[in-house]
UniProtKB/TrEMBL annotation:
GO cellular component: nucleus
Lineage, highest ranks first: Eukaryota, Viridiplantae, Streptophyta, Embryophyta, Tracheophyta
Keyword Zinc-finger: yes
Organism: Dioscorea cayennensis subsp. rotundata
Cell compartment(s), UniProt: Nucleus
GO biological process: regulation of DNA-templated transcription
UniProt record similarity statement: Belongs to the FHY3/FAR1 family.
Keywords for this protein: Metal-binding, Nucleus, Zinc, Zinc-finger
Short name of one Pfam family: MULE
Name by which UniProt lists this protein: Protein FAR1-RELATED SEQUENCE
């Protein structure tokens, strides 16, 4: 886990949804993605409760084990105790709120608005994902509140205060490994249920969890072998793609090749020269 975290620990997902034993104690896996975009496990803890004190202990202990390396970005759900602990232990880490959990909270707190308008959900998601510039995002958010008479809604006001944690307009310049939510944790929790049962004691839990880790790591070995046997197809035989194919894993190369294709649809409209700076304004061919 220490080796995996040193290689892939720039972005982590943390979740306490899964419960174990008869008193419903939270199980807290800390996970991320590897160079195949597959799940990699950095650690797991069994917590007594979900207080700020418990989270501070966990993050501090994790930091000690991982030789002081802090993640660049951490994804969690919208939990106040968790947020306080992250701010204290990982002050330089960019804390992102899972957009899926945020939307579920919106359904819970603004259910009457969702029922009254079949467009509200799409408009709310647009605020989360669609804007390139802060002023456009703020204008859209204010218009959303005004349109649906939510200007004084406490949940909306509190959520807006945390906008830097969930609005993509603030997260575009921070490395996130393509992750937007803690659904990676949700998927891992579902997988964990096949190995670990809530009735297990601590010894049984870690024995079975170790088996889960073995299977996760074996999946990475299989992906490494497949990559060594077969190279992904080139959509265009150009030097940059040939070079990237030799360097990247198949999954990452596919993502790179998609972005390269998109770049071919960009047209430079104007160029303002003011040496040593050159400002280009561009658009897609379809614009």
């Amino acid at each position: 886990m220490v080796i995996d975290y040193a290689l892939f620990g720039d972005v982590v997902c943390f979740d306490t949804t899964y419960r174990i034993n008869n008193v419903n104690r939270p199980c807290a896996p800390i996970i991320g993605v590897n160079h195949h975009k597959e799940t990699v496990v950095f650690g797991v803890a069994l917590l007594y409760d979900e207080t700020t004190t418990s989270f501070e202990w966990l993050f501090t202990t994790f930091l000690e084990v991982m030789k002081g390396k802090k993640p660049i970005t951490i994804f969690t759900d919208q939990d106040a105790a968790m947020a306080k602990a992250i701010a204290k232990v990982f002050p330089e880490t960019y804390h992102r709120i899972c957009t899926w959990h945020l939307f579920q909270n919106a359904l819970k707190h603004l259910g009457h608005t969702f029922k009254g308008s079949n467009k509200f959900g799409a408009e709310f998601k647009s605020c989360m994902h669609d804007f390139e510039y802060e002023e456009d995002f703020i204008h859209s958010w204010n218009s959303l509140l005004e349109k649906h008479k939510l200007q004084d809604n406490k949940w909306c006001l509190d959520t807006f205060q945390e906008r830097r944690k969930w609005a993509m307009v603030y997260g575009r310049h921070t490395f996130s490994a393509g992750i937007r939510s803690t659904q990676l944790c949700e998927s891992f929790n579902s997988r964990m249920k096949c190995y670990v049962k809530p009735r297990f004691n601590v010894l049984e839990f870690f024995t079975r969890f170790e088996k889960l880790l073995d299977d996760v790591r074996y999946q990475e070995l299989e992906s490494n072998y497949e990559m060594s046997q077969l190279k992904p197809a080139l959509k265009m035989n150009v030097p940059i793609l040939r070079n990237a194919r030799d360097i990247y894993t198949s999954k990452i190369f596919d993502l790179f090749q998609q972005e390269y294709e998109k770049s071919l649809g960009i047209v430079v409209k104007t160029c303002i020269e003011s040496p040593p700076l050159y400002e280009y304004k561009s658009c897609s061919k379809s614009s």
